[in-house]
Write a structure and sequence with these properties.
Length: 144
């Protein structure tokens, strides 16, 4: 991606967020009275403030190990996608993610990873003419 377009996209998103909150800076404190009165903030952002306090969440139920494992997998995926290519790194990432999330049926793991990535790559290459650099597919001779 061209750096110019990345900068323009960032400036566009920043201007939208600044414009939507420009006249409502006095409501940024945590006082619920002001947040519920500011109808313009709710209409611009599409958030409805609740009048009741949120229920207590039992933190013992949350599974931090899976979350940490998925974050580590995402970091490894980001580090390997340029070296081994989109097809292999995405397929391995999906397989390992399904295993971490608790799927144990290998047929579903296989169906939802390798063929899905292959179909997506066909859509990118064949229909949209978007070409991803993929050293693995070049090595085995699928891509030129």
């Amino acid at each position: 991606m061209n750096k110019k377009y990345l900068i323009y996209s960032f400036l566009f998103l920043a201007s939208i967020s600044l414009h939507s909150c420009a006249d409502h800076h006095e409501h940024f404190d945590s006082n619920e009275e002001y947040a519920s009165e500011c109808q313009a903030c709710e209409e611009n952002v599409g958030i409805q403030t609740s009048k009741t306090k949120p229920s207590n969440v039992d933190l013992k139920v949350l599974d931090y190990k899976k979350t940490i494992a998925l974050v580590i997998l995402m970091i490894l995926y980001g580090l390997t996608i340029l070296r081994i290519g989109y097809f292999l790194s995405t397929s391995i990432f999906l397989v390992l993610s399904y295993i971490v999330l608790g799927e144990r049926k290998w047929i579903w793991i296989f169906i939802l990873s390798f063929p899905f990535v292959a179909i997506f790559m066909y859509l990118l290459h064949g229909l949209l003419n978007i070409y991803l650099r993929d050293p693995f597919l070049q090595y085995i001779g699928v891509m030129g």
